[in-house]
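Sanity check

After download, print the first record. It should look like this:
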Amino acid sequence: MYKIDDIMSGYKAIFDDGYKAGRASVVLPHPCDGELYKDWTAADYFAKIAEEHLEVIDAYKTIEKSNKQPTKEEQDHFFKECTDLIVATTGLMHYLGCDEEMRQKYMKEINESNAKRDGGKRFKKHPLDVIEERFYKGKTISASKTQLEEKTKHDGEDFEIGEVVKVGFPFGEREAIALGKSEAYPEVYDVSINGLYYSVPRGWIKKVER
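Expected C-alpha cells:
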C-alpha cells in the first residue's frame, strides 16, 4: 500500500521546476541560456527562430509529398522541429526579460482569450469545462446531471464537485476547484488549478469561506 508521501513524491517539483515532468505536470520549454549563448544578442535569437521556422516548413513538405500519410519517423521529425521552434521562441522571450512566470501568465491570458473568441468555438470542450465556467462565472450548477446527483458522496467526503477550495502547498496556498476523490487513492483528491488537473493529499485542502 502506497503512503501519501510516496504518492506525492516529486509533486512539489511540479511548481518548483516546471521544466521537469512531474506526476501531474506538464513539460515546459527551457530557453537556451547557457554558456554557449552568453554572447548572443536578440538578433541571434531571432535568427534562430527564422532557422527553426524554415526547418518546420521543410519537415512539413516531406509530409505533403507522402500525400499526408507520413511514416512514423517523418511524423516524429516534424513534431520535433515544431518543438524546436517553440524553444527558440522561448529563448528570445527569456532574453528580453520574459521569465517563466511571465510566460505562463501570457499563456494563460492567450488561452482564456481564445476560449472566448468566435463564440467559444476555437477550443474543443472538455467534459470538465463546465466546472471551470461555474468557478469563473459564479454559477451554481454542477458539471453534469450525473455529477449533480452524485455530489461525490464517498465515505468521509466533505467537498462537492466544483467547490472552490484552498490547497496548501509547502511553498504557499493555491486556489483550486475540487473534482472529487481520486479513484486510485482514497486519501487523495483531484483538483483543477488554472485549468490543469492535479492530485493532492486530503490534508492539503481546506474550504474557502465565502
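If your output differs, re-run the checksum step. Summary of this record's structure: Residues 42-65 form the longest helix (24 residues).
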